[in-house]
Amino acid sequence: MTNPADGKKARREHARELARQEREAEKRRRKRNRLFLQSGIIVAVLAVVAIVTVVIVTSTTSSAVNPKNMASNGILFTGDGTTVSPVSTAALEVGSDPVATDTASLASTVNIVTYIDYACPYCQQFETTNSEQIQTWVASGEASLEIHPISILDRASLGTKYSSRAANAAVCVANYEPDQYLAVNDALFAQQPEENTSGLDTAALKTLVSDAGASSDEVASCISDKTFGDWVTSATELASDGNLASDTVTEFTGTPLILVNGQQYEGALDDADAFSAFVATVAAS
Hints:
53% helix; alpha+beta; 6 strands; 2 domains; elongated; 6-stranded mixed sheet; single chain; Glutaredoxin; 8 helices
């Protein structure tokens, strides 16, 4: 005969086993849910990282553009006896260092290099005083001229960054219509705004450049889009850090910085005779 107590004991043990199995099943279900949740979070994070990376890379690569005809970060002009012509160079690859002008090929000329800011009144003094005679020397083949537009005076334009915008406009001309660069250079100084004013707006800049002779749609769009804005910033930083077109001058002292065969001119900016005498002295040395 079966003992009733044994039956109750068996039922209790069976119930306990069922409860244990249910607890184990619940643990496994919760574990799976945690894993699914963690995996989902990881996938979501990776997706966000991927999107952010694409945005950063896209924005970086799309805004970084180097201009043609400015491999040294300046535009170089030489002459053939009668005419001043820009020297053509290909646009450097993004991230490349500027390539210094090979002065060995210019050994028979006096090599004049200027670092200028289109918002700088002292640059205006030098340019309006000396531009004509420098271009005459270049046309005759006696000199070369290399102009480096930079922007150190954005603070003086009431937040409009006129210095950078004007430099970008000049670089647009160097890239698309380099034959018109000197005319645009002269026009930018002739119509230089007063310090601590907003300066010319974009529409006025485009009109100035067009009236000076660089009237292509490419130049106008380049000015509107600030295509070479990042390049201007980089070129300014390099010059300010002393990366100059000279073996002896390694300190940037402000604009205008004028080098003649690598020697810095520190005479009167509004005295054409003084600058001419300096050039003659350097040429004879």
